[in-house]
Amino acid sequence: MAKLKITQLGHPILRSQAQPVENFTDKKLQQLIDSLIETATAANGVGISAPQVSQSYRLFIIASRPNPRYPHAPTMNPKAIINPKIIAHSDETVKDWEGCLSVPGLRGKISRYQTIEVEYYNPDGQRQQEILTDFIARIFQHELDHLNGLVFLERLESKKDLYTEEEYQSLIE
What CATH number has the domain spanning 12-172? Predict the structure, then answer.
């Protein structure tokens, strides 16, 4: 495993559609998954996508746990999500804070579906289907945006919903 360099806003890969993972038996896939988990953990992230480390694959990690960036995050084991899609969602949306390892120093209040039904593949190539809610659903939607060439800034409804990391931290203390 190796911690990877996080691609920053402005790099073209963050604005590109990621390519599907086709070979689940490739040892490099598991190495990338392990490195993504290590990178997200080291950066106090709760999720990270392959494009955020300059890899154009439809792959991301959800690794929610309390940390300095997200002190109230629920704890879960890191999970690799491959070739994901949302197959259904609630009508209800919730507006809450998001940040991004590729957009350091900024936070925004973003509307996301409260509940989503998702489909994806695990690292063994087995299709998974589950219902996600609240913070974990938010992470999934944020990371899925990365696979589609979007960053959270494009989801802002108002520039008034954009804060510096310092101001955000002062609000949650």
Answer: 3.90.45.10
Question: Among all chains, which residue has been given the structure tokens 């995050």?
Answer: 73
Burial class (CB within 10 angstroms; exposed 0-12, middle 13-18, buried 19+) of 112: buried
Q: Which sequence spans correspond to the domains of the chain? A: 12-172
Strands 115-121, 106-113: pairing is unpaired
For residues 8 and 101, give the distance between their C-alpha atoms in angstroms, rounded to a whole number. 8
Query: Are 102 and 52 in contact, with CB atoms under 8 Å apart?
Result: yes
Distance, C-alpha 77 to centroid of its chain: 15
Residue 158, CA distances (Å) to 91, 99, 149, 154, 155 in order: 21, 16, 20, 10, 9
Q: What is the residue whose two structure tokens read 């991301």? A: 60
The yes-or-no answer on residue 98 being catalytic is no
Q: Which of 22, 130, 143, 166 is catalytic?
A: 143
Pairwise CA distance, residues 62 & 84, whole Å: 12
pLDDT category, 171, cuts 50, 70, 90?
confident
pTM over 0.70: yes
| CA 43 to the chain's CA centroid | 13
| Overall average pLDDT of the 17-31 stretch | 96
